[in-house]
Amino acid sequence: MRLSMISAALVAALVGYGSTIALVLAAAQAVGATQAQTASWLLAVCLAKAVGSALLSWRTRVPVVLAWSTPGAALIAASSGITMPEAVGAFVVAGALIALTGVLRPLGRLVAQIPDGIAAAMLAGVLLPFCLKGLAVSGQLGASSLILFAVFAVMRRANPAFAVLATLGAGLILAFGPGGVALPVFTMPHPALTFMAPHFRSDVLIGLGVPLFLVTMASQNLPGFATLRAAGYAPPVAQALQTTGALSALSGLFGAHTISMAAITAAICLGDDVHPKRSERWKVGLAYGGAWIVLGVAGPWVIALLQAMPPNILTLLIGLALLGPLTAALGSAYATAQTRFPATVTLTLTASGLAIGGIGSAFWGLIAGLGLLGLDQVAKPKRP
Q: Which residues pair with residue 356 across a beta bridge?
């Protein structure tokens, strides 16, 4: 294996980990996860990505790079009134639905029929409150917020893939540097998987499990497959969905949310600089899996470090990290004129946090958008 493969895999893993780890911790906090459950969550999702990336790359001879569901983590973090066992039930069901999508072609076609604009609007509605909250606290941080904004803006122009990672590094320096808070005492035990019996509550499955499945499919799996096609590979769609779905359901029993195909981090591993022979680049998936095992083992120390940061800095970092996904989601939501109004209803209803019958706003936003789009189609005047 070339050094360039190891380097690309390590960079991709660090970018994926550093850019959204704070959001995963926010998701764990939202469902009331304990310290041990949060550590198990992080270890399980890292191991699932490691095993899935290495296994799919080895079996298909295609460089498959997996990620945890960032929009899924945002969806979980935006939820309320859900316990950890209930969240585990939703994670298991979402993983099972992803696996079924790879097995049952009619289910895959049904998901594909959801208009891109509506799916993107639901994602934008999930992300928007985090971005607004992050920008709102910047006024309380004074000069620190200006520094973080400057680092983010400059790195975004220099190398967008490293913008969030560099901003996270700057945030850590501001938090624990001179005049900041004291570094935590790293006395946590070694990472361990903790089994969590799922509790299947119908309204949680509908309000969290189904939207988690949909945003993972529409916002990460489909772009991930497109990234492979753009690099000249035939994506192993059925195998990837079956594998990631099964691993998501299994790791969900240890607290992890869904894993999926990667898009941005995958692009780091697919270029000519990784290996001049396209047929040999699949080996980067093995190195990528190894990098995620190391990151999973380091999870308890990362958790302790981020939880010791001032909350406002962490909130601002999450908001900045989600500006890129929000921009992409808004672009897709309003790309087609026919779906713009239904997409706006989906976005605003999802962002509102409305819950009816215990079912979260993401589901109702999707239903409202699809309903309005269907009404527009029925009422559309026929051409003479």
A: 359
Contact partners, residue 38, CB within 8 Å, separation at least 6:
25, 28, 29, 255, 303
Question: Is the whole model's pTM more than 0.90, yes or no?
Answer: no
CA dist 254 and 46 (Å) reads 12
Separation between Cα atoms, residue 245 and residue 166, nearest integer Å: 32
Burial class (CB in 10 A: 0-12, 13-18, 19+), 305: middle
From first to last of the 384 residues of the chain, give the pLDDT tens digit.
678 888 888 878 887 887 788 889 999 999 999 988 999 999 999 999 999 999 999 999 999 999 999 889 989 998 888 999 999 999 999 999 999 998 887 776 776 677 888 888 887 888 888 889 888 888 888 888 899 999 999 988 887 767 877 888 888 888 888 877 777 766 656 778 999 999 999 999 998 999 999 888 877 888 888 778 877 888 888 899 999 999 999 999 999 999 999 876 787 788 777 888 888 889 999 999 999 999 898 888 888 887 788 888 888 888 888 888 788 888 888 988 888 999 999 999 988 888 776 677 878 888 899 899 888 877 776 655
Which pairs count as long-range contacts for 330-336, CB under 8 Å and 24+ apart, including other chains?
330/120, 330/124, 331/120, 332/116, 332/117, 332/119, 332/120, 333/117, 333/118, 333/120, 333/121, 333/124, 334/117, 335/116, 335/117, 336/115, 336/116, 336/117
The dihedral of CA 27, 32, 35, 36: what is its sign? negative
Specify burial of residue 313 (Cβ count, 10 A radius: 0-12, 13-18, 19+): buried
- Per-residue DSSP letters for 111-148? HHTS-HHHHHHHHHHHHHHHHHHHHHTHHHHTHHHHHH
Instruction: Enter the tokens of residue 251.
Output: 């790791």
Cβ neighbours for 92, distance < 8 A, ≥ 6 positions apart? 198, 249, 252, 253
At 263, which helix (H) or strand (E)? none
